[in-house]
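Hi R.,

As promised, here are both runs. First protein below:
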Amino acid sequence: MSIQGRASAAATQLALWAGLGIVVLTVVLTAIGFLVASLFIWIDQYKPDAVAAVITGGALLLAAIVIFLIGRVILKKIKKPQPSILAEFGGIAGTAGRIAGLLIRRDPRKSLILAVIAGALAEYVTSDSKKRN
């Protein structure tokens, strides 16, 4: 899988997890709202209607837990296995080698100049910053 494919998969997973988190958070906040309302109603009026609100809040919390567990299982199942970074680097290196081979066969002088420039650039990038000063 290419780097763009990895980034796309990571963004998709992030969006799905964020959506699941928002749904669970909404249900939990609703449940807490029902529980708080039921507490106030129960303390204030001592009516049996408050028991229904407590049951509703508990049911919403239970629903949030079930939604989260089911969503987590689904998201883990749809996650695609990805090849290792080393395998991708090997593919990139192989492609670079084929391009270099084509360039050498077409015009050896230009490829020699490009090789010198690439070597100098690689040395500059990999050298210590103390040597540059």
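And here is the second one, sequence first, then its structure tokens:
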Amino acid sequence: MNRAYVNHLSTHIAEHGTAAVERDLLQLARYVRRHGVAVEAAALMVDRASPQIVRQRAFAVVCSALTKLADGPTGELALAS
């Protein structure tokens, strides 16, 4: 997972909504859960029953947490498998 990908995903969500990127959001949620950051927000982000605005705001929280994680010792996000 790298910053360019997250930025691209952000743009795509802004233009098309979270429903257009369900698979990507699930992958992102697995990544943050593995790293123990923004776990609650990740759950909301992938909850299809949640309103669109809630999912988008949860995505923003996840992105913020990833930025803080990336600004750690390595400075780059590891590729999610």
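A quick note on the second one: Residues 3-70 form one domain. Let me know what you think.

Best,
J.
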